[in-house]
Automatic annotation (TrEMBL):
One Gene Ontology biological process: regulation of translation
Domain Anti-sigma K factor RskA C-terminal: 107-229
Name of this chain's protein: Anti-sigma-K factor RskA
GO cellular component assignments: plasma membrane
Species classification: Bacteria, Pseudomonadati, Pseudomonadota, Alphaproteobacteria, Rhodobacterales
InterPro entries in alphabetical order: Anti-sigma-K/W_factor, RskA_C
Length: 238
């Protein structure tokens, strides 16, 4: 379509659904379209139809092995690996990184252990450690309950009641109070609980909400919340 040919209301809805499924909407537009999905069953179905079409196209793609440098770069950014020859192998290592340093470390550990086991110096064992934050999510009908607990940077998702429909997955989202697009944290397990690391750019602050959406199997194909919103709850500090 061109600017000279205005879209009909049905064509506009279809285009909006396609943009939402592709993840092209941002900010208030994405929020408004996502909210509309919870109120307009016809529009929600259009988004799901586009998701299925896009998923079909993705199935036709031929997987390509990523180059080794890409994998190494990802590992470095995550802090799990060091670039090849990031350290000069000919460089003289400080004494504390050699055999003498290792021996000194063992002696120090033994001394600390002996001190701790002296009468009156028994080690203190923490009991009943509690998470820092939590959100209790429940569907409007009450047939689905999910608990989200945040301990440091680790979030535990516990499916307490209910389950996703056949061929669907429940996806959990982090919603900032600034109105920006929700950020996916991961999928709710089909039973029991699962643990996942909170992305580095997310921090628990006042006004954070946790939401659940009903997405295609494997989660949203666009990286944005596209399915119906099942539940929303505040992330509260304990």
């Amino acid at each position: 379509m061109t600017e000279d040919t205005p879209l009909t209301p049905d064509e506009h809805d279809s285009a909006l659904a396609a943009e939402l499924a592709l993840g092209l909407l941002e900010g208030p537009e994405a929020e408004a379209a996502t909210t509309r999905m919870t109120e307009d069953a016809g529009f929600a179905q259009q988004v799901r139809d586009w998701q299925e079409r896009l998923a079909g196209l993705a199935m036709q793609l031929t997987p390509v092995m990523a180059p080794a440098r890409a994998k190494q770069g990802i590992r470095e950014r995550l802090g799990f690996g060091m670039a090849p020859l990031a350290e000069d192998p000919t460089e003289t290592r400080p004494w504390w990184r050699g055999p003498i340093g290792a021996l000194a470390g063992l002696v120090a550990v033994a001394a600390v252990a002996a001190f701790l086991w002296l009468p009156g110096n028994a080690p203190i064992t923490p009991t009943g450690a509690q998470p820092d934050y939590q959100a209790q999510l429940q569907s409007e009908a009450g047939d689905l309950r999910v608990a989200a607990r945040l301990d440091g940077r680790e979030m535990e998702i516990d499916l307490q009641d209910g389950a996703a429909g056949e061929g669907r997955d429940l996806e959990i989202w982090w919603i900032k109070p600034d109105g920006s697009a929700p950020i996916s944290i991961g999928l709710v397990p089909r039973s029991g609980n699962a643990r996942m690391e909170l992305p580095a750019d997310l921090d628990p602050t006042e006004g954070i909400k946790i939401a659940l959406t009903d997405e295609p199997a494997g989660g949203s194909p666009t990286g944005q919340a596209t399915g119906p919103i099942v539940a929303v709850a505040d992330l509260t500090r304990l």
